[in-house]
Input
Amino acid sequence: MKNMQEIKTDVLVIGGGAAGCWAAITASAHGGDVTLINKYPLGKSGTTIVGMITYNAVMGELGVHPEDSPDIYFQDLVKEGALLGDQNLMEIFVRQGRKTVLQLEKMGVRWDKIGDKFDARRLPGMSYPRGCFSDHRTGLFIQRALVREIQKRSNIRVLERKITKLLTKEGRIVGAVGLHIHDGSFLKISAKSVVIATGGAGRLFKITSMPEDARGDGYSLAYEAGARLIDMEFHLFFPATLVYPETLRGLVVPRGTTVPLGARILNGRKERFMHKYYPEAEFATRDKASISIFKEIKSGAITLHGGVYMDVSAVENLLEKYPTSFKDFKDAGMNLPEEWLEIAPGLHFTLGGIQINEFCETSLPGLYAAGEAAGNMHGANRIGGSALPECSVFGQIAGENAAIHAKFNHYLEPEGEQIGEEKERLSNLLDAGKKGHTRPIEIMRALQDLMYDKVGVLRTGNGLREAIAEIQDLKKKAKDMKIHPSSRYNNEWVDAVDILDMLQLGEIAARSAMFREESRGAHYREDFPQQDDRIWRKHSLSWKEGGDVRIAYCPVRITRPEGG
Amino acid sequence: MSENKIKVKIFRFDPEVDKQPHFQKYEVVKTEKMSVLSAVQYIYEKLDGSLSFSGYFCYRKLCGLCQMKIDEKNRLSCRTPVEDGMVIEPAPGYPLIKDLAVDFSAEREGKGSENEDL
Output
């Protein structure tokens, strides 16, 4: 058995994307020790760096649309979220975005401007253009700026570990256990408060625009510790992501802006079909376009790689206009603009998450969450460009409150034998793996396939029941996993740890989607196609009780009954 | 589409077990426009779960974690087409962990107490 290292820190932040970096930076300003733990190299992993363009903020007189206001943004959010967004959180969000744009500018992010005014893009659902941007790599530039700030602060320690368990004492969070992927050693972290900022769970689905590490670690950590999750049935798909070539799978293909310029969508028989499902055809909003494309794929009129075609040959100056998409696809070997792209909907954003209040407190004392790991400010759908500012605004709030909590609390030892048991759980997985039968990656692919087919864009009661049953079968297979025995950078071991958690998240998603007998935003039930505000304008809550998932409901917090 | 099989040679070394590195040959079913990264992932998924390589890739030329030495050149494997006979080694300039996995981390130990426990 490898050595167990031990560290103490006032505030532990798990996840090094925008939300986690902001939490660490903000907490460090309070003077205590902060530890930021990321699964892979900080600044070179996570989802923030792939956030290409827009960062929504109401810039007032500093922007090109001074007539825009936080109140109008609020109304847009309520509407686009299909009345399910947490208005308490929205109230803060719409007012604080601007401050974060200016903070990031001071840190070196060069926002695009017209004269001295912040330029802004308009995406569907926005009453005014409010998507600030920095070239075509806004997320990457934000991530780099934040990492530079972290490196300036001597009271922030950065470590690379995969956190596998939160430690508790009498319902309070008192630390965590981490696995060092490089050498298989374990780390015990005692912390006075913990912030989860681990992003979304795109990798529950076979096609996703999220990178490889977006496996929903934070949801699982919180769930296993007893925290409440909210709205875990809401998974937002982007209608056009590449399915081929493999190395570009999941990458977002601009549709909203290319369709008006002549882009067309065709099925595997090279016929246009979008009009069959909605009269807006190719111009349909993201959710309707996803449904149309998914239905056509289900009908069997598919391309060689299981999608539909997108023809962008009529779009003028395609490569110059889209350096980070079409130009890049060409560099990767596609014969653009002539070659037809093969596309399908890909999971884009996990709307649900760890339930938080306006202080980013979760249901467990000492535990905070921010960014995509938290839910559910947006509601049943999300306006493009609202994810990155959410990370900044709530990352700061989480860091602030976690630091204050740390000032007024002591280190506590976890109750029972949690550390030994966790070490044993992970080591046993590896030991038993020598004699096991099914590889973790096989189970993961099976889960991703069934989630995409039955818990994805299009859902039915029967499909969801089948999904739940299939997940139970996969859980049985996961008790007998075959794993290579090395403890040194063993992806198979990491996959094994993750698949156990991912199966549970899949089940929570399927169960809460099965109960919600209506359609709302990103949750589309073919057997209940209408939105039913009388019964279903409420959040689902899920948590672990007696070893099983419990699901209940709570009202949506409404600060403006008239909708703003 | 006919199956197009190619062979690639991959650097293998587990410092805890092996005295010295060696190369292992794998036969990969090459799909159209397949990248070196996709070939490495194919090997992990279909042939050999013991092969170590980074657990993160962005697929967008942003992270740099798919860097590998491919036929003696340091390249992004996600944007390099795979070809028959290629020799694939870990990214140069970083401490080797195992096989193709290197330490890309900017891990920084600040002040604080890190000590050995049992």
Remarks:
- The longest helix of chain A spans residues 491-515.
- The two ends of chain A are 59 Å apart (CA to CA).
